[in-house]
Amino acid sequence: MSSKVPIFTLSNAVRMPSVGLGTWQMTGDEGKTVIRNAILAGYRHIDTATLYQNEDQIGEALAELFAEGVVKREDLFITTKAFCHEVAPDVIEEALRNSLKRLRLDYVDLYLAHIPAATRECGSHRTDVKVEDIWKGLEKLYSLGLTKSIGVSNFNESQIERIVKIQKVPIHVSQLELHLYLPQKAHREVCKKHNIIITAYATLGSPGRMSVIGADGKPLFEFTKNIPNELNDKNVKALAQKYNKTPAQILLRATVEMGIVVIPKTTNPERMKENINLFDFSISKAEVNLLEAHERSKPERLFWWPNVADHPEDPFAAER
Ligand code: NAP
After folding, report:
1. Domains with residue ranges and CATH for the chain
2. What would the DSSP string read from start to end of 24-75?
3. Of 1, 8, 65, 231, which is the most exposed, with the fewest CB atoms less than 10 Å away?
4. Ligand 1 pocket, 316 CB below 6 A?
């Protein structure tokens, strides 16, 4: 069993475990075993999305675990996400109902708009849908009780500010790429101002991304191959040695210490235990600050979402 995972409280009083299991690239039959192993290792928070095509396996595993009395629904925090073709207000309710069917659940704990840019199923851009419209669709799902909390993913700071101006239900969570080499300081400020909890993805530098093959048969993330990985960072390694922990444990613990939720992905049972056993040692504020003062001269974004380049709501337009 894991050392005790701190619980963060969202602005609507929903409790969210600060460590969850990421499931991008967890596919096929292994999904069921992975979820069982994770629950047995102490995970109570699972992050999925329609994009990951594993909601079915997660649902099957959870149904078995509930039936066996291993865990109760109310003890879990399940997040899923509406992808670009699902975020428009005229399709998002059906999208969530389909996810719930696959997950075999009556509600999720958090539903996120995966990307702020709406498309049609074929991928063509829907320029009629603005982030304010996406938010109104999410608010409706919240009022229907299909999700306990709502939030955004890959939205930039000004898109968050635009929502804040019109929201009836506040943004509970913002999920985005955040790691040592992409510390997202401006985003952290905006979220602090509006009482939004951040979930970081790619905290370990997403080494598995290099195995994703695009439609052209080439690695999708080839252009990021020269970006060094944080697991090899010399400051991280020094702290790992000092505390007799692994570099992954240092990266994850330091991020939680900053008040940020982490969702490391692994299908390996040993790493699964490693990634949640983070709370039997102390890391000082000065050490967390030292990690942040790393030697990269510019932020290193790994995820660029080329499918929404040129969309009026492309969150990375200013950086492309
Ligand atoms: P990550 O968690 O930074 O890295 C996962 C990779 O690191 C996997 O290849 C895993 O391999 C390896 N790994 C895991 N634990 C390790 C350890 N202790 N030591 C060494 N290597 C380890 O990256 P991610 O999967 O991209 O991001 C995490 C989660 O965030 C995703 O799974 C997904 O749920 C979510 N996410 C969300 C978005 C979004 O747009 N909202 C985008 C990307 C990801 P093994 O499986 O072989 O252990």
Report:
1. 7-308 (3.20.20.100)
2. TT--TTHHHHHHHHHHHTT--EEE--GGGT-HHHHHHHHHHHHHTTSS-GGG
3. 1
4. no
